[in-house]
Amino acid sequence: RKLKKTTMRSAILFPLAIASAASAPCTSEQACRDAAAAADMSITVGEFRIQTKGCFTKGGRAFWSPADTYEEMASEPLYPNQERLYC
């Protein structure tokens, strides 16, 4: 069996396509739930006493906190142990 030869162009573009597929912040609770499930994470939903809003992770768990603006959902979390979960 012959293996298909991969060109440099396809080797470079394929990872970029994967990365761009999940580069937008989740803007709804359901989108956050779907992203958490895809990442095999459980999710906690609520209004938390922290400034991070939207969909984010902390300690291997996903969180959704309602936000008033897109900017709140898209900004990087203020705390170093949190990360934005993208859809």
Largest sheet: 4 strands, mixed
Category from helices, strands and their pairing: alpha+beta
Total strands: the figure is 4
Q: What is the approximate shape?
A: globular
What are the segments in which pLDDT stays under 50 over at least 5 consecutive residues?
1-20
* Proportion of strand residues: 15-25%
**Strand line-up across the major sheet:** 1-3-2-4
Helix share, percent:
25-40%
Mean pLDDT: 80
* Span between termini: 38 Å
- The count of helical stretches stands at 3
Rg result: 16 Å
* Topology as a string of helices (H) and strands (E): HHEEEHE
Give me a quick take on this structure.
The chain has 87 residues and is α+β, with helices and mostly antiparallel strands. The chain has helices spanning 8-21, 29-38, 70-74, and strands at 43-45, 54-58, 61-65, 82-84.
Structural features, described:
The protein is of the alpha+beta class. It contains 3 helices and 4 strands. It has helices at 8-21, 29-38, 70-74; strands at 43-45, 54-58, 61-65, 82-84. A 4-stranded mixed beta sheet has the order 1-3-2-4. The protein is globular. The relative contact order is 0.21. Residues 1-20 have low confidence and may be disordered.
Topology (SSEs and partners):
Blueprint (H helix, E strand, L loop, with lengths): L7 H14 L7 H10 L4 E3 L8 E5 L2 E5 L4 H5 L7 E3 L3
Parallel strand pairs: 1-3
Antiparallel strand pairs: 2-3, 2-4
